[in-house]
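[job 0412] stage=fold_complex status=start
inputs:
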Amino acid sequence: MSAASDVWIIAEQAGGRPRKITYELLGLAKTLAGQGTVHAVVAGREIAGIAEDLAAHGAQVVHVAASALLEPYTTDAHAQVIGTLLAEAAPGLVLVGSTAAGRDLAPRLAAKLDAGIVTDCASVEVQDGRVVAARPAMTRKAIVRVAFHDGIRIAVVLPNIYPPAPAEQGRSADVVTVPVTLDPASIRTRVVAVSAIKRETVPLTEADIIVSGGRGLRGPENFALLDKLAAALGAAVGSSRPPVDSGWVPHDYEIGQTGKTVNPQLYIACGISGAPQHLAGMSGSRCIVAINKDPQAPIFGVATYGVVGDLFEILPLLTEEVRRLKSAAGDGGRQAAG
Amino acid sequence: MNIVVCVKHVPDTEVPIKIRADGRGVEESGLNHVLNFYDEHGVEEALRIKERFGGTVTLVTAGPSRAVEALRTGLAMGADAAIHIQDPALSSLDHVGTARVLAAAIKPLSADLVLCGKLSTDDNAAVVGPAVAEFLDLPQATAITKLELGEGAATAHREVEGAVEVLEVKLPAVITVERGINEPRYPSLPGIMRARRTAVAARTLADLGIAVPPAGHVELLNMTPPPKRQAGRRLEGEAAVIVQDLVRALREEAKVL
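[job 0412] stage=fold_complex status=done
writing structure:
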């Protein structure tokens, strides 16, 4: 792939608005396309307004596939419509966000299009005409660099790594309407219910700040301490494996080898010892704060700031201090630096 | 109910790995391999369905000779049959190529349900399951935390960003399973004895009608240890002072607040 090739992104949207990862992909696409064109594909029900938003963030061509059959997301509907489009265009590089839908769709597309696919990309670059991706593997005990061969290349990019493309009003894109000719009988899955996980203000994988608890919290009731700090910070709450195994919190809290991989700006580990299984899911965080009574806890080995102390004493004070800071700022606090 | 479970033999996640001197993989000697634990959940789910509705559980793997041990573990848990695809050409396949090979082995089995782990803990790719579904032209549901079978369809729960989605999937289907779905059983002693006696069906790519192995679309350049994080600053002493110090550091040094 030359530095002037077109780069496509699959723009994921929720409720008519692009997800954060979509802006991150647009930023990356612009860098990789150089003088080439950035294309975005968006599929859903009522998405007329999205093209303008994508254009403002750098998409030069927006392919809009609008149909009631495309929302909510189903593998069959999206794979058919987007697969057909990509088969015709045969772009050299397609960027997909590593989200629940992206991880479901991208491998299916790769098989359909006989394309190369690399998932969990922490970086995607063009080096000497080759597209090279780096990704964690072996439960993050190794970073693997992979080169794509020629053909359609699909890179599934981890969220929260690339900065979102800034919006510039006044930019416009060519909007192409994608014909949708879907046979409803060919859609073999149906979404029958979606129940929001109430505790999540921000999904863990998209959060700029995560407050996470471990065995040191001693019981489910003490997660309230984390909730309070998280509310003050605008953060999401997660956990290491022991609280999940003990039934204190549901599995969707878990960060680590058997749970989620997160890359927030700030990760506050409370009462977490730092087993390799946990570090595998969070050591990509930019800044790590560890609060632990045990000065020997391995978590201190990766912590930017290691607080040796009793979390039951520290957390309420920290929450209080953050609240004071935010109210002094008067604007609910500024967002963490992108 | 004919259930097929795709399994993989992977390095034990509990042990450290040694990257080969040429950076093209990990040193296999002395490295303990086990059944990928997401696949254990797949085997467990298959056995629970079999116990409820009857049928057979067939395991399929594509891998070197040692991979038979992953099949033995699944058989010892209670699976009925196992297929081992072994071929020198396997090592040059990428994940989509591997899926094509697995699909070719699964196709003649007339499966009602194909289960896979959400991902394997070595490559972490999560590509094979959906790609197998595409090659078999079956619907898919990925990273499932709860599965209930009904007439001609299954109900599957999956976690999406900030929500749990409930899907109805027509059967036959390919389902990839998340860790929360069940608690895998340990192989029983009689199970282990039976697993040793069960014949494992061997297949080559030629047996599966794949004459020329498809070339991979991606190429491993190298593998390196992840960058080591340096331990930063310790904050000790009186709680109120630590907190003041920490918040100041997060604002002024790290600039994350």
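[job 0412] summary: The helical segments of chain A are 20-33, 50-56, 75-89, 100-113, 223-233, 241-245, 276-282, 311-329.
[job 0412] exit 0
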